[in-house]
Amino acid sequence: MKRKGFQQVITLFSVMAIFSDFPDIEAVRVASSQPKQRAKDSQSDLTPSGSYWQQHVATPSSSTPFESPFYSATHGLVQTHPSLSAGHPRPVPLNSNSLGPGVPVAGATSGNPSLTAGSGYLNSRGSLPNSARYPVNKITGTVVEPNPKSPFRHLDFSTSATAELRRNPALSAPDECARACREGEPPRICYYHFTLEYYTVLGAACQVCTPNATNTVWSHCQCVLADGVERGILTANRMIPGPSIQVCENDKVVIDVENHMEGMEVTIHWHGIWQRGSQYYDGVPFVTQCPIQQGNTFRYQWTGNAGTHFWHAHTGLQKLDGLYGSVVVRQPPSRDPNSHLYDFDLTTHIMLISDWLHEDAAERYPGRLAVNTGQDPESMLINGKGQFRDPNTGFMTNTPLEIFTITPGRRYRFRMINAFASVCPAQVTIEGHGMTVIATDGEPVHPVDVNTIISFSGERYDFVITADQPVGAYWIQLRGLGECGIRRAQQLAILRYARGPYQPASAPPTYDVGIPQGVILNPLDAICDRKRQDAICVSNLKNAKKVDKGVLVERPDVKIFLPFRFFVYEPKTLFIPNTYNRFLVASDADHLVSLIDEVSYVSPPSPMLSQYNDIPEEYYCNGDNRPSDCGENCQCTHKIDIPLNAIVEVVLVDEVQQINISHPFHLHGTSFYVIGLGRSPDEHIKRMNLKHALDLDQRGMLERRYQKPSLKDTVAVPNNGYAVLRFRADNPGFWLFHCHFQYHIVIGMNLVFQIGTLNDLPPVPPNFPRCGNHLPPITSNSEW
Ligand SMILES: [Cu+2]
């Protein structure tokens, strides 16, 4: 059984290349058979963005996604793939593995390509993107060698993204690293270069090309379509989602982040990567590093723990404007207890879901009182794609939906990443197909069969889909729950059987008439203490690996109760002359700051990890050590010290008690066991708070299950409920623990666990950037 699984995974990437090709092949056929339709489109197309709006009320089914890659034809330019336009080549499956030197394969452009080892399985042309290593002169198309003697080399942004790859032969390019992982294979050093910029949805790049259907590690097209609504955005390498990092366990990952966002600083956090030994590269501003200044490049390097993770900006609200992407660390099948449950684990089967505004995220912070109040998203994206119906006009954009391709009879591992920023839970349901959940937050669980997965910002769920339905196309529906129900925000994608139709036979599900939910993972009612037919709680998931019994003991070394809530200002107490307290204007017009254990987190002026001695002791505080004059909106650097190797229990208690909102807490640096989750078992307690939680705990009524609890790094605390987490504090460092809602982070719903002492830490990397206040004594004019 094992061996069979192994072979299947070996052929994984070759087959993936085939599937990723099909949509393009079909699209060429279809597009060429409908010239009249395109001509008509071009007449009605007056503006670049106009072509993405249909002038009648449309459903997604009436805008065929396979035409969509050719909408740019209305601008007079069509990008076709050279190797495909010559005919309809059908790539041949591999017999060998997909490792190789990464050279273009002879015959790849002959119209009859046979893909062999390392033949660029990640792009649809059947060839390694040469642009990865050799910058191409944009005018002539020729490869340019940078002049090594030029003093301006470092200023040449057209080559900086690939300079390191050219210089250092020990590095592997992103598509060389996204491979099937084999036991005993030597690890690689995988190099990525992120260029961060201000950018635009539906900019002029969309006159040049349209992004292809594959989930991109490299993008060959700088057009960002999103949901077809024009807006300014932030991008890494002009893609949304940004570049995908896909490597094998033990690979070294190196990412150069080059910040060209004018007037903005940034850090990138690798969500789910524990950073053992690479604490300095966790990407939290003023905790692990100084933010990267505009014009600077910062090199992150780490080795990842296995699983489905993602990266995102951790500064300000930038994540919501487009700075996120997937991180997948694969393992040899022998290392995954669930590998026998699926045949394929394709790079194209990452499902990154995100919420999407039609304006800058900062437009909603601190928030408005009259128009577009609150922080709810207008829209959602699946792998950066989607359509949007304007509620005022009824017009619908006809940008392409994401298509996931499968083959009858096969079983596929999907890796879903919830990159939401808002408070809305995300519900994913697939027409006609159940999902077997096999991992969460990168950690394998005993498989459970569900029909709907509800997830929160920062969570990941891996599931298996079996292609056992009639060949066809099936809807994938993503719905925003909770507050997103007001706008009825949803998005669709398509699960398509290879060689079948592109368009589902059924009408597209709507927000109100959706795909039947069936069995739900992560029910919002959080009734988790009894067995039920209709739902499975996260705390019911069973760990598929050996658990650390030492963590699951009756008495932990450290027990921390962390109630969290909002403090609501009266306008007259907020807008006092010469005071400038931060606040968020919620949709109900309340002016809020967040409190965890009665403290609202503010960053210190320098990173704790790299410049500890530059931070005055009085900056720090916690629930037991609040400054005496701190007030109800107490703001300081919330830090809790934990001895190295202590067994820690954290009890999160929701005192917000806002119906519809469950706050997902994310821990950096390690995963935790979820041993309890729910609401008060005592019917007399209507509103959960710290006192009740302590009382329940004393009476032995706080649920704790020690039987194979699942490991996670992000867990939603049920509203008006609690969560009990356990971990071993064996990764020394300064680790942020916070609500993952973007707008709650900026009003202080964070704290830092300091694990161990400074002596337990690796040395600060040489020439690590420094930052801090500049407050010299005020001098008289003559003393400049
Ligand atoms: Cu929150």
Automatic annotation (TrEMBL):
Protein name: Laccase-5 isoform X1
Pfam families noted in UniProt: Cu-oxidase, Cu-oxidase_2, Cu-oxidase_3
Organism the protein comes from: Drosophila pseudoobscura pseudoobscura (Fruit fly)
Every Plastocyanin-like domain range: 223-333, 349-498, 602-755
GO biological process per UniProt: iron ion transport
Region (Disordered) location: 32-60, 81-111
Keyword tags: Metal-binding, Oxidoreductase, Signal
Family: Belongs to the multicopper oxidase family.
